[in-house]
Predict the structure.
Amino acid sequence: MAVRFGVFAPVVGALVLAMGLAGCAKQPSELVVYSARNEQLIKPIFDRYSAESGEKIRFVTDDAGPLIERLNAEGANSQADILMTVDAGELWHAADLGLLQPVKSDVLEANIPESLRDPQGRWFGFSVRARTIVYSTERVKPEELSDYAALGGERWKGKLCLRTSKKVYNQSLVAMLIAEFGEPKTEEIVRGWVANLAAEPFSNDTLLMEAIAAGQCDVGLVNTYYFGRLLRDKPDLPLKLFWADQAGQGVHVNISGAGVTAHSPRSEQARKFLEWLSQPEAQAMFAGQNLEYPASLEIEPDPIVKAWGDFKRSPMNVAQAGELQAAAVKLMDRAGYR
Amino acid sequence: MSAEVVQPETRRAWRDPLSVVLAVVLCLPALVPLLVIAHATLSPEAEVWAHLSRYVLPEVTINTLKLVIGVALLSGIVGTLLAWLTSICEFPGRRFFDWALLLPLAIPTYVLAFVAVGFLDFAGPLQSWLREVTGSSAWVPKIRSTGGVIVVLSLALYPYVYLLARTAFLTQGRRALEAAQTLGLGRAAATWKVALPMARPWIAAGIALVCMETLADFGAVAVFNYNTFTTAIYRAWFGMFSVSAALELAGVLLLFVIAAFALERSSRAGARFVSSRDMSRQAARLQLGPAARWGAFAGAALVLALALVLPLLQLLIWSFENIGDIDSRYWGFIARSLVLAGSAAVVIVIASLALAYIERRRSTASIRVLVRLATLGYAIPGTVLAVGIAVPLVLLNNQLQNWLRAWMGESAPVLLLQSTLLAVLISYLARFLTVGFNPVESGLQRVTRNIDEAAASLGVVGGDLIRKVHVPLLRTSLATAATLVFVDVMKEMPITLITRPPGWDTLAVRVWEMTSEGEWERAALPAVAIVLVGLIPAALLTRRGAHVA
């Protein structure tokens, strides 16, 4: 062992050194993106942009939490130019930590509706994720449905399925309810939901919809693209979407979006890329990849998505989801929503 | 690296301080995140903490205890019993089960969890079929329940106990049993009083690994929506944006672990293990009665079916439905998984060996505490540990960068230590040191001073002692350590995600890409690849072990 190791020591040493040195590089000119939006949804977009502009993009995917911590630690030495997430709360949090810089761009302001971007221009939504009611066409008449709060009513006792409150989409939804109704009323609504649950909350929206189709429950809350994906695979499932709260604020929407990092070495290029993302062709592709809604109202969604009909979106700024997210989580803890 | 360890006799003068320094260096990656956690606990955020202690802590404490105790008991019993059967007894199919029972090691807990829930929940194929045929599936026990999580985690984790207990039984079991029986003990008494106590360090090490995996698990409990300390940590961090509350929860979790270890250690303090080299070759296997023979067969077959065969079938079905996802990039994912797992295994086994020798040669309290602390990394939830290492690495890099700038001015190259393979390996070392260290330490415990002295009397000392005497004695332990680390790294997700250099996507990263948007069935393909690639070393290890025995 000792002899063998004696032979290996220089080799290992050299290897270690080489690995370390591989980290020393001349400042490269390509854009660096930290992305919580997964590879199969963003790579085609990056490839298209590279083909059009000649600009290369490097990216790392991970959950938003670790990416934000990493960005925070890297500080002024960070090589990242853009942070991309699948939730407004995460962008709000990154901006709150001072990790994103304000971007002034007429193009972005013209293309992205005001409620889908940071008032200070630190982040912009590029696709809209609507969270609404899904129901069994076998056991529910659409007239029986109205808004999110009504799902806590007597009619849905033992008939409601929800996804876990650990998922940020539900945290954002409850945060927006707090913004609209205040904490006491929202807590009452959430308690109503919990009392109506037919099963322990599910770990994802797809399982939840399958449970409705199988008869475990009758109604639930989902992001529409999960519905689109599931029905694309299994078109015969007796499920339909219902646009919630059309007589009130409208459907709760979240965004998948991005911002330019505070210490971006290539902030000009980064801004250009975001502007490109807000333009029609990229918008159709960014949203269409995942059956989401384009952020820009000028663009038609994918035909599958369009078939679900038009609806009123909540006009509240999605930044509030971030501001109130911690309060929403605590509220759900108190209400026993797991 | 380990020169001072392998030739201690000749360099006594500077051996001691150097081994302390080396121990500190090896433990540093694991200690840094612990320090980060300890530091955070000093400045609690009162308001968040008040909320947590009222609404969150009671539930997660009870849930976590139930889960850990349940999984430790079930996997401990299943693992030990199966190891006992395959290494001491004779029953139909024993040769096959002997190595096959280890293979579930290759299945990540989160994968087994989503397969189990997908297949057994209300809307899954089994209950749907029951409803179609019999009209009701109401009598089927709920899979998403405390019992369900315990069973699933035990099925995924029992191989750790099996592997280590098997090593113990193979290297001393039958011979010791024979000796006990010649001294007049019945078979049951011999097992109970001799074989089990002798195997105890291995069984305990296996159960310790299982407990730590369970405490750190996020993927599987998330599929069940079962709230534990880990989920509470994630929720405080990513839901309430309170890093400090998250780290404080991690601190409480670690106190649990430390208490459990202290308990286990003190309960076998004073015990010394002074037998024995693998002399069991000639000892005969226990012949079971006909009922017991077929009971053993049925039990082994059931565990194997539930933990490996059925889940693998379900994964293959899902993979086949998404076969279009397969492309040439998969070779890259596989190759990178192999390179990372392979190099991590080499680095960690060397580090474990060095640490185990330091502990053996210089068993001072400070070194023992250091080593204990360093092996706690395994119980920290992956993402917390990943960030706990990545962030200090980044800070170190920035410091170096600033020095470099001060020295070279604007022409200084940009340092990116945090996106190198070195960073990945250091992080794996922090997480998996205990996985390598436990079997090596257990193995070394049985290389007694008597053996050293006997060797010394024949003039075999220093490097020769290790090469000619220790390494052959430790071969099984080293192979065990390497295999466990290899397979664990294959399955590892959060550390790989945050520390990998751009482009270094592995199979586990691929699973994340799919599951991050809830596409579990599309995650089956990379999951199957993880299992199949992980099966190879697992199979090699047991088959090789079988030859030795």
